[in-house]
Design goal:
The chain is α/β, with parallel strands linked by helices. The chain is about 40% helix and about 20% strand. The protein has a five-stranded mixed β-sheet. The chain has a two-stranded antiparallel ribbon with strand order 1-2.
Length: about 170
């Protein structure tokens, strides 16, 4: 009967692992993935100085670009986003960027490199992935003035896409 003890120990460890993984899944399962047509719900992010911030519907059209500094397609579309942000600012449209889990120094350097003037935040809790559905970057989300997500695009946007977006958003 002594030979059964190692199996009991292994079964106990396996059961404990399942309980822990189940709790993690349960925590994420309660987060509802947002889709076009849904109301934008507040999300928690961090500013570049590390302060917590909550992004919510602002009462004005908002374009959210989820990116990473190391992402080639993100880097390619950033100059066009900078130009678009300046163009849309005069029309009352807010453009913001949310970096997926990098450090403030990397994001600040990225902002300097591209001359980004719109607000940048850092996602430290996977909210862009788990709530906004940004499983591929870059990922762009448009929220209208009433707080409804109107569209979401995974992957880089072309100059033609951004021109259409300017017409829609403005």
């Amino acid at each position: 009967m002594r030979f059964l003890r190692p199996y009991r120990l292994a079964a106990g460890v396996a059961l404990l692992a399942l309980i822990i993984l189940g709790a993690r899944y349960e925590r994420h399962a309660h987060r509802r993935l947002l889709h076009p047509g849904d109301a934008f719900t507040p999300i928690s992010v961090a500013t570049l100085n590390g302060s917590p911030a909550t992004l919510s519907a602002s009462g004005r059209p908002t374009l959210i670009n989820v990116f990473a500094t190391w992402c080639g397609p993100c880097r390619q579309e950033t100059p066009a986003f900078c130009a678009l942000a300046k163009h849309l600012e005069h029309r009352g449209v807010l453009v913001i960027g949310i970096d997926q889990e990098e450090g403030a120094n990397e994001v600040a350097g990225f902002a300097r490199e591209f001359g980004i003037t719109y607000p940048l935040y850092i996602d430290r809790s996977n909210v862009t992935h788990d709530v906004l559905g940004a499983r591929m970057i870059p990922n762009t989300i448009f929220v209208d003035a009433s707080g409804i997500i109107r569209w979401q695009h995974a992957g880089p946007l072309t100059a033609q896409d951004l021109a259409q977006l300017a017409r829609t958003a403005g």
